[in-house]
Structures are given as structure tokens and as C-alpha cells.
Amino acid sequence: MTHYSPAELAAQLKTGLLSFPVTHFNPDLSFHEAGYREHLSWLSQYDVAGLFAAGGTGEGFSLTSAEIDTVVRTAVSEVNGKVPVIAPATGGTATAIAQAQAAESAGADGVLLLPPYLTEAGQRGLIEHVSAVCRSTSLGVTVYSRANAILTDVTVAALADRNPNLVCLKDGVGNIEMMTRTYARVGDRLTYIGGLPTAETFALPLLQLGVSTYSSAIFNFVPEFALGFYADVLTQDRDAVYRKLNEFVLPYLDIRDRTKGYAVSIVKAGVTAIGRSAGPVRPPLQDLSTEELAQLTDLIGKIK
After folding, report:
1. Which residues pair with 88 in a beta bridge?
2. Which of 144, 183, 192, 262 is an active site residue?
């Protein structure tokens, strides 16, 4: 059973860094529940504001609806109310509604609505899609503006007016003008979450636009560094932020950018690099090469 009303969820998520854990797989690519539980238990000793199960970093796009339900139920059980657990809703409208309702039944505290699969859509269609999912659940909903579902400021305002339980906008675009327009139009009606791959890169400039938190993938394997970086962003310590960008984040991006899909693969590789293997990624993603894993391991060692 959920512990947070939509308003309480929105208030909670803006209080700290957000965790997007990887999903653990066995060598045969089946879900490794024990490994996932151990990972969540380890991460739970660190202070974060929310946990997003089976999100993009968690390879939710490769999971069946039944697997998503299993992963979400496992997270809810393991976290046990310490922080809110947000479940994904993916695919077309009917599938997303079913997953949102399953998340509520599983005891999740909120829903992350990801872009619909494949098809492009106009703003009116996206309004109807998001609104249908919001109507299907009493949970607080975070909508992810990204890829084939990029929401304009006018659309975000219309959605906020129409759907009281739409509480967060996760930005995966990084368009400064659009974020400025959105915040100017919608203000603090929503909580704004940075959702670009390796969100640390954009954290400081987006803070000025009302984006007070972000999804940290690197929290999976360098939690102390991730939390320290977030603290530097909040205090707007530019020297510290840029020092840490240069010593770790930017070299990390150099590895990440070598192959499409590495934004997820490199996170699992990071977990392996610290001796806490999460198993392989599922196709169509591919794991880092042995050489790339060694380079990442060396990079992590420099900030430990």
C-alpha cells in the first residue's frame, strides 16, 4: 500500500538525489532477485529521496509487464517504506494503464510514465495519452519528456491543469528555452527532475531553471561521489562541480559515448567494476568490451 499521496510524493522527491537502480540478471538473462535485493540493501544506507524501479537504467524497456511487476514488488518489499518506490508505465496507452494499475496494486508510491513505444505523436495526442494514464491511478505520476514524447510548455501546463495527480516533469531533452518557458508558465505546480543521460553533466545549469533534483545512474556504483556532487550542485560550488566533472564525469562520458546504448551498459559495468556484478545487459544493448571495462575500473579507482 502506498505511503505517499501525490502531493507528498512531489514534496519528497525534490528533497534529494534520486536513485535509478540497475536490474540484475542471471547469465541466462532472467531476473536475479537475490542480487537485486542485495543491491537495494547496499544502496539504502545512503540518503536519497526516491527509488525508481525498472526505469531506463533498470532496463525497463527490455522487461515484460510481468517482469516489471516482479521487479517493482521486489523493490517495494526490500525498501519497506524507507523511501518512495516509483514504478514504470511504458508502451502504448492500454499497456501503460495496466502497468500503472499493477504498480498501485504492488504498493508502489508513484508512476514514471515513459514515452510510448516507437510512434511519433502530436501534442494533443500526448495530452490524451498522459491524461488517460493519470486517470487510471490514484498514484502521483511523473511524466518523462523525451524522444518521441517531447512536451511543450503549453502541453505541460494543460496536463497540470487537467490532472491533479500529475506531480513531476522529468526532462530528458535539455532544451534551456523550453525549460525556461515551462517553469515560467507552470511554476512550482510540478516538481522538476533532470533526466538526461548522466544527468550530472547538466545539473548545475538546470538548477537555475527550477530543476532541483535529477536521476543519478552513477549512484549505482559510486554513491558517495554522486551524493557529494549533488551537494556541490545545491550549494552552487562551481569550482567543486567542475573539478569533479573533469576528474570523473567527463572521462566517464568519453567511454559512454563510444556506442549507442552505453548510457545503460556502462552503469552495469560500473557495478561490476566495484565487485558487485549485476550481470549482463539484455539485447539489443551490449556490454562494454574487456578493455572498456578496465578503463572504467581504473577511472573509478581514481575517485575512491
Report:
1. 112
2. 144
